[in-house]
Design goal:
With 215 residues, this protein is α+β, with helices and mostly antiparallel strands. It is 14% helix and 32% strand. Helix 1 packs antiparallel against helix 3.
Length: 215
């Protein structure tokens, strides 16, 4: 496994959702998978997966991967126009802890450019145009940052610690999708969030539950 440099989150490390999707794919199997990140995933580094543990060439633990029974984390959808309107208020356009993030960084013209803005009920929503090349890791990435932005605020950065996701289908290249996020609760430095990805016809394509940790 290798997390290419373009798939970064914070500078010098992989985007959590993309990295977790790569690790989940390597684990194989069917059904939902949970990935716990034990350190920022290194970029352009050959990683190995043995017995559910992802390690770097020096043997350092990067992540743990396991099958889970279910991911009951569906966030209700909104229509595309509502998602587009929410995205105009994306706080990351004004202040972003990692503006070069592959998924939600405004500085990345070559990224997924998912800009989650707040809905009146506190959820986040954003449009997402599927890229020309899309795999399960792309869906995992799309399910990542919209959850984080339910709790991220100026001067209050969080990083993904754990994510469990299920991908029921991939969007087709160019599909205009909608992703939604919801904050479930905060316990000290940990925030529990849910996210869901919907296709152009409103079909649920994937869902995730995640834990974000304040820096």
């Amino acid at each position: 496994m290798l997390i290419g440099s373009r798939y970064n989150g914070p500078p010098g490390s992989g985007n959590g959702g993309w990295s977790a999707g790569v690790f989940a794919a390597a684990a194989g199997g069917t059904g939902p998978v949970e990935v716990t990140l034990r350190r920022p995933p290194p970029l352009d580094t050959e990683l190995s997966l043995t017995g559910g543990e992802v390690r770097d060439p020096a043997g350092e633990l990067v992540a743990e991967v396991r099958q889970v029974a279910t991911v009951d984390a569906v966030v209700p959808p909104v229509d595309l126009d509502t998602a587009r309107l929410a995205a105009t208020g994306y706080p990351g356009l004004v202040e972003h802890p990692f503006p070069g993030c592959y998924v939600c960084g405004p500085d990345r013209a070559d990224g997924l450019r998912i800009f989650p803005g707040r809905l009146p009920d506190g959820r986040t929503a954003a449009p997402f145009r599927a890229p020309d090349e899309i795999g399960d890791a792309t869906v995992w990435a799309a399910l990542d940052c919209p959850g984080g932005w339910t709790v991220l605020a100026p001067g209050r950065p969080y990083l993904l610690g754990r994510i469990a996701a299920v991908v029921t289908a991939r969007p087709a290249p160019g599909d205009e999708c909608v992703v939604t996020g919801a904050l479930i609760g905060v316990d000290g430095r940990k925030a529990s969030v849910h996210t869901s990805l919907y296709g152009p016809d409103g079909t649920l394509l994937g869902a995730a539950r995640a834990t974000w940790i304040a820096r």
